[in-house]
Amino acid sequence: MDVYDYVPAFQKPGMSPAVTTASLRDMARLGVRTLYLQAAQDDRRSEDDVVSRSLVGEVLVEAHRVGLRVVAWYLPHFADVDADLRRVVALRDFRAHGQRFDGLALDIEWTNDVPDAATRNARLVSLSERVRDATGGVPLGAIVYPPPLLEDVNPKLWPAFPWRQLASRFDVWLPMAYWTLRSLSSPLHDAATYVAQSVERVRADLGVADAPVHVIGGIADAATADDDRAFVRAAHAVHVLGWSMYDFDTTRSDAWPILRSGS
Q1: What are the start-end ranges of the H helices in the chain?
Q2: What's this model's pTM, rounded to 2 decimal places?
Q3: Are 258 and 232 in contact (CB under 8 A)?
Q4: Which residues contact 81 (CB under 8 A, 6 or more apart)?
Q5: How far is 107 from 66, CA to CA, in rounded Å?
Q6: Which CATH superfamily, name and number, covers 1-143?
Q7: Closest Cα to residue 183, out of 163, 226, 153, 157?
Q8: Is residue 32 within 8 Å of 68, Cβ to Cβ?
Q9: Are 134 and 92 in contact (CB under 8 A)?
Q10: Strand order in the sheet with 140-144
Q11: Burial 14-33 (b: 16+ CB within 10 A, else e)
Protein backbone atom coordinates (compact mmCIF):
# COMPACT_ATOMS: atom_id res chain seq x y z
CA MET A 1 0.00 0.00 0.00
CA ASP A 2 1.50 3.29 -1.08
CA VAL A 3 0.10 6.69 -0.18
CA TYR A 4 -1.78 6.88 -3.49
CA ASP A 5 -3.71 3.74 -2.49
CA TYR A 6 -5.07 4.76 0.89
CA VAL A 7 -4.43 8.38 1.92
CA PRO A 8 -7.26 10.80 0.99
CA ALA A 9 -4.92 13.78 0.60
CA PHE A 10 -3.06 11.97 -2.19
CA GLN A 11 -6.14 11.25 -4.33
CA LYS A 12 -7.15 13.13 -7.46
CA PRO A 13 -10.07 15.55 -6.99
CA GLY A 14 -13.33 13.69 -6.55
CA MET A 15 -11.63 10.33 -6.09
CA SER A 16 -11.65 8.12 -3.00
CA PRO A 17 -8.84 5.79 -1.88
CA ALA A 18 -8.96 2.38 -3.53
CA VAL A 19 -7.68 0.62 -0.40
CA THR A 20 -9.20 1.09 3.06
CA THR A 21 -8.89 -0.52 6.46
CA ALA A 22 -11.68 -2.88 5.37
CA SER A 23 -9.30 -4.18 2.68
CA LEU A 24 -7.04 -5.60 5.37
CA ARG A 25 -9.50 -8.40 6.10
CA ASP A 26 -9.39 -9.30 2.41
CA MET A 27 -5.60 -9.36 2.52
CA ALA A 28 -5.59 -11.80 5.41
CA ARG A 29 -8.23 -13.97 3.76
CA LEU A 30 -6.21 -14.05 0.52
CA GLY A 31 -3.09 -15.26 2.32
CA VAL A 32 -1.08 -12.08 2.80
CA ARG A 33 1.25 -12.33 5.78
CA THR A 34 3.00 -8.95 5.75
CA LEU A 35 1.70 -5.53 4.75
CA TYR A 36 4.28 -3.08 3.37
CA LEU A 37 2.83 0.35 4.14
CA GLN A 38 4.15 3.68 2.90
CA ALA A 39 3.64 5.62 6.10
CA ALA A 40 5.89 8.64 5.46
CA GLN A 41 6.39 10.76 2.36
CA ASP A 42 8.49 13.82 1.54
CA ASP A 43 5.51 15.73 0.21
CA ARG A 44 3.51 18.83 1.15
CA ARG A 45 0.35 16.70 1.28
CA SER A 46 1.69 14.77 4.27
CA GLU A 47 0.28 15.73 7.65
CA ASP A 48 3.79 15.86 9.12
CA ASP A 49 6.59 13.29 9.29
CA VAL A 50 3.89 10.59 9.16
CA VAL A 51 1.47 11.00 6.24
CA SER A 52 -1.63 10.83 8.47
CA ARG A 53 -1.20 9.75 12.05
CA SER A 54 -4.81 8.80 12.65
CA LEU A 55 -5.16 6.83 9.42
CA VAL A 56 -1.80 5.09 9.72
CA GLY A 57 -2.72 4.16 13.27
CA GLU A 58 -6.04 2.70 12.12
CA VAL A 59 -4.28 0.63 9.47
CA LEU A 60 -1.64 -0.62 11.90
CA VAL A 61 -4.13 -1.66 14.57
CA GLU A 62 -6.51 -3.34 12.13
CA ALA A 63 -3.68 -5.13 10.31
CA HIS A 64 -2.45 -6.59 13.59
CA ARG A 65 -6.00 -7.52 14.55
CA VAL A 66 -6.39 -9.65 11.41
CA GLY A 67 -2.95 -11.24 11.83
CA LEU A 68 -0.75 -9.22 9.48
CA ARG A 69 2.71 -7.94 10.25
CA VAL A 70 3.29 -4.34 9.14
CA VAL A 71 6.51 -2.95 7.68
CA ALA A 72 6.46 0.84 7.30
CA TRP A 73 8.45 2.18 4.35
CA TYR A 74 9.73 5.58 3.34
CA LEU A 75 11.19 6.92 0.09
CA PRO A 76 14.19 9.15 0.91
CA HIS A 77 14.98 11.94 -1.55
CA PHE A 78 18.54 12.53 -0.24
CA ALA A 79 18.29 16.32 -0.69
CA ASP A 80 18.15 16.71 3.10
CA VAL A 81 19.52 13.67 4.91
CA ASP A 82 18.58 15.09 8.30
CA ALA A 83 14.94 15.36 7.18
CA ASP A 84 15.03 11.83 5.74
CA LEU A 85 16.35 10.51 9.03
CA ARG A 86 13.74 12.45 10.99
CA ARG A 87 10.91 10.76 9.08
CA VAL A 88 12.37 7.31 9.65
CA VAL A 89 12.73 8.05 13.36
CA ALA A 90 9.09 9.17 13.40
CA LEU A 91 8.13 5.75 12.06
CA ARG A 92 10.37 4.06 14.63
CA ASP A 93 8.61 5.96 17.41
CA PHE A 94 5.09 5.69 16.02
CA ARG A 95 2.55 4.04 18.33
CA ALA A 96 -1.17 3.44 18.02
CA HIS A 97 -2.95 1.98 21.05
CA GLY A 98 0.43 0.72 22.22
CA GLN A 99 1.21 -1.02 18.93
CA ARG A 100 4.23 -0.35 16.75
CA PHE A 101 5.48 -1.33 13.31
CA ASP A 102 7.05 -4.77 13.01
CA GLY A 103 9.80 -3.45 10.75
CA LEU A 104 10.94 -0.49 8.70
CA ALA A 105 12.24 -0.18 5.14
CA LEU A 106 13.91 2.42 2.95
CA ASP A 107 12.72 2.56 -0.64
CA ILE A 108 16.04 3.38 -2.34
CA GLU A 109 15.14 4.56 -5.82
CA TRP A 110 14.78 8.36 -5.90
CA THR A 111 17.39 10.07 -8.12
CA ASN A 112 15.79 13.39 -9.11
CA ASP A 113 16.87 15.59 -6.21
CA VAL A 114 20.55 14.59 -6.23
CA PRO A 115 21.47 13.82 -9.86
CA ASP A 116 25.20 13.40 -9.16
CA ALA A 117 25.64 9.71 -8.42
CA ALA A 118 28.74 10.08 -6.24
CA THR A 119 27.03 12.63 -4.01
CA ARG A 120 23.86 10.53 -3.89
CA ASN A 121 25.83 7.42 -2.96
CA ALA A 122 27.60 9.25 -0.15
CA ARG A 123 24.28 10.50 1.20
CA LEU A 124 22.70 7.05 0.90
CA VAL A 125 25.54 5.47 2.87
CA SER A 126 25.37 8.21 5.51
CA LEU A 127 21.60 7.91 5.85
CA SER A 128 21.77 4.11 6.06
CA GLU A 129 24.39 4.26 8.81
CA ARG A 130 22.38 6.80 10.78
CA VAL A 131 19.14 4.88 10.33
CA ARG A 132 20.80 1.66 11.48
CA ASP A 133 22.15 3.40 14.58
CA ALA A 134 18.79 5.03 15.29
CA THR A 135 16.64 1.93 14.83
CA GLY A 136 18.77 -0.50 16.84
CA GLY A 137 17.22 -3.94 16.78
CA VAL A 138 14.18 -3.02 14.66
CA PRO A 139 14.21 -5.17 11.49
CA LEU A 140 15.34 -2.94 8.63
CA GLY A 141 14.78 -3.59 4.92
CA ALA A 142 16.31 -2.06 1.79
CA ILE A 143 13.98 -1.83 -1.21
CA VAL A 144 16.41 -1.62 -4.13
CA TYR A 145 16.71 -1.62 -7.88
CA PRO A 146 17.89 -5.08 -8.99
CA PRO A 147 21.43 -5.46 -10.37
CA PRO A 148 20.26 -6.56 -13.86
CA LEU A 149 18.57 -3.16 -14.21
CA LEU A 150 21.45 -1.12 -12.77
CA GLU A 151 24.25 -3.02 -14.46
CA ASP A 152 22.78 -4.22 -17.77
CA VAL A 153 19.58 -2.42 -18.74
CA ASN A 154 20.34 1.13 -17.56
CA PRO A 155 23.82 1.65 -16.07
CA LYS A 156 23.23 5.41 -16.00
CA LEU A 157 20.28 5.11 -13.60
CA TRP A 158 22.38 4.68 -10.43
CA PRO A 159 26.08 4.16 -11.23
CA ALA A 160 28.36 2.40 -8.74
CA PHE A 161 25.56 1.56 -6.34
CA PRO A 162 27.34 1.03 -2.97
CA TRP A 163 26.26 -2.55 -2.24
CA ARG A 164 29.23 -3.52 -0.07
CA GLN A 165 29.02 -0.35 2.01
CA LEU A 166 25.37 -1.05 2.74
CA ALA A 167 25.66 -4.78 3.36
CA SER A 168 25.89 -4.58 7.14
CA ARG A 169 23.24 -1.86 7.51
CA PHE A 170 20.14 -3.81 6.50
CA ASP A 171 18.58 -7.06 7.62
CA VAL A 172 16.54 -7.87 4.51
CA TRP A 173 16.89 -6.93 0.83
CA LEU A 174 13.83 -6.33 -1.33
CA PRO A 175 14.80 -6.06 -5.01
CA MET A 176 12.13 -4.61 -7.30
CA ALA A 177 12.33 -7.34 -9.94
CA TYR A 178 9.67 -5.83 -12.19
CA TRP A 179 9.99 -8.03 -15.27
CA THR A 180 6.82 -6.41 -16.63
CA LEU A 181 8.83 -3.21 -17.27
CA ARG A 182 11.40 -4.94 -19.43
CA SER A 183 11.15 -4.94 -23.21
CA LEU A 184 9.16 -7.78 -24.75
CA SER A 185 12.23 -8.65 -26.82
CA SER A 186 14.50 -8.89 -23.78
CA PRO A 187 15.25 -12.20 -22.03
CA LEU A 188 14.72 -10.23 -18.82
CA HIS A 189 11.01 -9.93 -19.66
CA ASP A 190 10.81 -13.56 -18.58
CA ALA A 191 9.67 -13.57 -14.96
CA ALA A 192 11.74 -16.55 -13.86
CA THR A 193 14.94 -15.22 -15.45
CA TYR A 194 14.61 -11.71 -14.07
CA VAL A 195 13.64 -12.81 -10.57
CA ALA A 196 16.41 -15.40 -10.28
CA GLN A 197 19.08 -13.05 -11.63
CA SER A 198 17.88 -10.21 -9.40
CA VAL A 199 18.13 -12.27 -6.22
CA GLU A 200 21.36 -14.05 -7.08
CA ARG A 201 23.12 -10.86 -8.13
CA VAL A 202 21.96 -8.90 -5.08
CA ARG A 203 23.66 -11.52 -2.95
CA ALA A 204 26.77 -11.52 -5.15
CA ASP A 205 27.06 -7.72 -5.13
CA LEU A 206 26.62 -7.63 -1.35
CA GLY A 207 29.23 -10.36 -0.96
CA VAL A 208 26.77 -12.23 1.29
CA ALA A 209 25.82 -15.58 -0.21
CA ASP A 210 22.91 -16.14 2.16
CA ALA A 211 21.63 -12.55 2.38
CA PRO A 212 17.92 -12.61 3.34
CA VAL A 213 15.75 -11.50 0.41
CA HIS A 214 12.07 -10.76 -0.11
CA VAL A 215 11.59 -10.35 -3.87
CA ILE A 216 9.03 -7.92 -5.29
CA GLY A 217 7.62 -9.02 -8.64
CA GLY A 218 6.27 -7.12 -11.60
CA ILE A 219 3.50 -4.58 -11.84
CA ALA A 220 0.60 -6.80 -10.86
CA ASP A 221 -1.98 -5.98 -13.51
CA ALA A 222 0.62 -6.18 -16.30
CA ALA A 223 1.51 -9.79 -15.40
CA THR A 224 -0.15 -12.92 -16.71
CA ALA A 225 -1.02 -16.10 -14.83
CA ASP A 226 1.95 -17.81 -16.51
CA ASP A 227 4.16 -14.95 -15.32
CA ASP A 228 2.89 -15.39 -11.77
CA ARG A 229 3.59 -19.12 -11.81
CA ALA A 230 7.11 -18.57 -13.13
CA PHE A 231 7.64 -15.87 -10.50
CA VAL A 232 6.69 -18.13 -7.60
CA ARG A 233 8.76 -21.04 -8.95
CA ALA A 234 11.81 -18.80 -9.27
CA ALA A 235 11.27 -17.36 -5.79
CA HIS A 236 11.32 -20.87 -4.35
CA ALA A 237 14.37 -21.84 -6.40
CA VAL A 238 16.50 -18.98 -5.03
CA HIS A 239 15.33 -19.52 -1.44
CA VAL A 240 13.82 -16.16 -0.58
CA LEU A 241 12.03 -15.29 2.65
CA GLY A 242 8.96 -14.12 0.78
CA TRP A 243 7.57 -12.68 -2.43
CA SER A 244 4.96 -10.14 -3.42
CA MET A 245 3.65 -8.16 -6.37
CA TYR A 246 3.29 -4.39 -6.73
CA ASP A 247 0.71 -3.85 -5.54
CA PHE A 248 -2.31 -5.18 -3.65
CA ASP A 249 -4.85 -2.96 -5.38
CA THR A 250 -3.82 -4.07 -8.88
CA THR A 251 -3.35 -7.80 -8.20
CA ARG A 252 -5.75 -9.85 -10.30
CA SER A 253 -8.18 -12.13 -8.47
CA ASP A 254 -6.88 -15.19 -10.33
CA ALA A 255 -3.32 -14.42 -9.20
CA TRP A 256 -3.93 -15.03 -5.51
CA PRO A 257 -4.04 -18.84 -5.56
CA ILE A 258 -0.81 -18.81 -7.57
CA LEU A 259 0.90 -16.38 -5.21
CA ARG A 260 -0.17 -18.49 -2.22
CA SER A 261 1.23 -21.67 -3.71
CA GLY A 262 3.98 -23.21 -1.64
CA SER A 263 3.66 -20.52 1.00
Answers
A1: 3-6, 23-30, 53-65, 81-93, 117-135, 147, 163-166, 191-206, 225-237, 256-260
A2: 0.97
A3: yes
A4: 123, 126, 127, 130
A5: 26
A6: Glycosidases (3.20.20.80)
A7: 153
A8: yes
A9: yes
A10: 34-40, 69-74, 103-108, 140-144, 172-175
A11: eeebebebebbeebbeeebe
Which residues face 37 on adjacent strands? 72
Give me the DSSP letters along 38-72: EEE-SSTTSSSSSS-HHHHHHHHHHHHHTT-EEEE
Of the pLDDT bands very low, low, confident and very high (cuts 50, 70, 90), residue 262 is low
Per-residue model confidence as pLDDT tens digits over 110-166: 999 999 999 999 999 999 999 999 999 999 999 999 999 999 999 999 999 999 999
> 200: buried, middle or exposed (CB in 10 Å: 19+, 13-18, 0-12)?
middle
* Sequence spans of domains, the chain: 1-143, 145-263
Instruction: Of 40, 90, 99, give the one whose Cα is nearest residue 68.
Output: 99
Q: How far apart are CA 42 and CA 3, in angstroms?
A: 11
Residues making up the chain, counted from first to last: 263
- How far apart, in Å, do the first and last CA atoms of the chain sit? 21
